[in-house]
Amino acid sequence: MDEQTISPHDIMTIIKRRKWNLLLPLVLVFTITTAIAFLIPSYYKSESTILIENQEIPVDFVMATVTSFAEQRLEMINQRVMSTKKLIELVDQFNLYADLREKWTVEEIMEKMREDIHMETISTEVIDRRTGRPTTATIAFTLSYMGKDPGTVQKVTDTLTSFFLKENLQVRERQTQEATSFLEEEMKKVKQYLEELDVKLSDFKKQHSNELPEMLPVNLQGLNNTEMNLDRLAEQLRSAREREEYLQTQLSGIKAEMKDDLDQKRIEDLRMNLISLTTRFSDEHPDVVKLKAEIAGLEKQQGVSGKKSPDNPTYITIASQLAGVQSEITSIKRQIEEVEKNRTDYQKRIEKTHSLEGSYNALIMEQNNSKMKYDDLMRKVMEAKMAHGLEKEQKGERFTLIDPARLPEKPFKPNRLAILLIGLVLGIGAGVGFAALMEFSDDSVRDTNTLSQATSFPVLAVIPEIITQKERSGKIRKQIIFGVSLCGIFIISLALFHFLYMDLNVFWAKLMRKLAF
Fold first, then answer.
1. This prediction's pTM
2. In angstroms, rounded to a whole number, what is the distance separating the alpha carbons of residues 278 and 138?
3. Which residue from 85, 199, 482, 516 has the highest number of Cβ atoms inside 10 Å of its Cβ?
4. How far is CA 338 from CA 223, 230, 324, 335, 342, in A?
5. How many CA within 13 A on the CB side of residue 299?
């Protein structure tokens, strides 16, 4: 056929002429699609919603020891729940995937179950109290399971939800307990180390009690005092020696004994008398003999007495003063020796103080740091114990089930209505395509214009279509069959929709509610 313009009337004529070419592919494709839609097994989905609640007691009063973010903790719990051991327990408990156990391996079944379990977080925009900037926070999450049996799906979802709630409590309590145990163990170690430092510092102080840095001012003051004492004693010694020299000078010019001087003078007088008598008398003269005897007696008496105690009062006074000065000098010398010894001790202490200062300060600093660390650990242990009590009483951040799993009333998939609509569209497309193919591949001439264009001759006469009564009856019968078929298909579709997808009363109520809005 030559290319020509097709009017709407021509399209209607073609549709009437090719109605069976249009309807048969449509019915065939739609029937196949309907069969596929209702042969695919129904899968039901049950879903529960869990709210992540913040701790009831303000964090300013009790700081929780669980510092991980909700998303991180959820992922960790999800990995624990999705472990092969847990999933095998669920499969055995509810006899899941009974039709696949003989065909698939355990790993494949576990992978299939992980695909059927779905967790999705619910987030919202909040203002971070620490930074004041908007951020995304997870406030809840949904947990769902998909399977063929509605009751089993609900039970599995409930079990999974209980797993998550229980695992969250165990994780938080375990983390707080581990934090408390760790801090207590560290506190014991620091306390033991602190006691060792105290013993070491005590021994150090006992060993160097006078050379400690805090004794440096005392030692410097003592050294200064000894220097002043030495100067004072040196002045006293100089003065005492001057007095000693003075007294020795005085003492050298004074006789110690006054009686010896009188006896000597008496002997000299007697000797002078003896010389005078011997010039006049002989040696046997009684006066001469008597005088000699007296002289001998005095000399004998002077020789026997030897060295006698001085009896000169002046000599005795000066000698006693000299002895006192000499005793004072001896005492001053002894004091100087003691003070010099003390000065040497103070100097040694000061020298040792400078050499021991580094070690002593290091011990003091280590002790102070250990005390600060111990105090900090003690505070943290108390906070950890409070946080542990917070978790045991479930006053901290917790998971709360706000929407438990319900028994699914309609399948989650497949979406049979969508499949039927797709089948209808595909059927219409197939029918239109097949009808167009049959029309454009047919070279038959059906009107005068087409015949004139094909032969280049004018049409002289047209013989109309002659329809017999039999043909008219057959045409009516076909129309009745077609109408009845359409009604049957419509009724069957409604029945399938009612029993397999949604109750018609429910559908009508939903439709009216949507139309009302």
1. 0.52
2. 154
3. 482
4. 13, 10, 21, 5, 6
5. 11
